[in-house]
Amino acid sequence: MGRGLACSGALVGVLVLGRVAAAAGPVGTLVVDCTGIEGWAQEPDAPDALIDVHLYFDGPAGDPVATAIVVTASTVLDGGCMGAECMHGYRSALPMSLLDAADHEVHAYGIDLTGDPNLELAGSPAQLSCPPPPVVGGELRHVVSPEILAAWQFSIFFDRLLVPDAAIMALPVGPVVDVGPQLRVDDAGGLWLVDQGRRRALAPDVAPAWRLGPAAAQPLAPAELALPEGTAVRPRPVLLQGTMPEVWLLDDHQCSEGDPDPACVPEGEDDTGGGSTDGDAGTGAGSSDTGPVGSSEGSGTGGEGTGGTSTGPAPAVGDEGHGGCGCGSRERSGSGWLAALGLLVMLGGAQRLRAPGRYMQPSIGS
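The chain above was modelled as a monomer; its predicted structure follows.
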């Protein structure tokens, strides 16, 4: 949500009231830290119904500079709640664009189903100040145009991490992203992305984070079924951008026959073709250490913290194509990786903001 959704007259401002005794609007909580956003929200007039929560960043509802996403309170929580509240949990990843060590404000509003005000949840607003995460080892794929950015529904606000140019230059460059997602479904209902002459598994709990689902999939053709299987799709899209206009998708290298990339050397083999004076070189441990950090095996850490089924945010109005996608490209730069810890991500349920509503701050004890 590169610009993200700039809240305007379409979303009415917060009515700051000392007490809202007559309002039976939603109740719930908001908790924010550097691993993500979590809480619960429930409609007292319809306690079994699942409601939406509007999350606003860097301003309350009605603030023209605030950016908003929607999450659905449909996750079962195992803490921070009591009784039936725990059936109405919500989670969201943090927007990559806000991981800059600066201070940011997060507001959460429960969206009423019966005409009562949309109340700000307990704990809102919360403060967020998180440093940029280390870049996960992998390779860069240039997103060639704003049109391709929009075709993938990539969000400049939610998916893009601004990094030093040195971080960009330290990663190898892979094939460009010059077409939209080629999403397929097999006879068993499994989702696949046909990409780079391979079919790549798209796990059910990962697909929503990429804003992809079965409704947009075409049947997997026999010729596509015969394609070699590549790495699984990463838990969430991560875009990188330095000071230049190019936007890069961080992805895993796809190995091919005889590929000299260290990640592609079979376990126990020495890619130099000869013996090594280092007893660890060429071993399984060595291959693991030099392979992509956060690839299909290591990326599970991001999903582990989410619990339940999660979805990712759709770009907000005005997000598509913002931030620039320069059409230049650079040559593949060797196989050096940034030394990195795993990128811990939480996948959160989100979608476009819907109809306007009345937003109120809760009274004390509401």
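Residues 1-23, 271-312, 314-366 have pLDDT under 50 and may be disordered.
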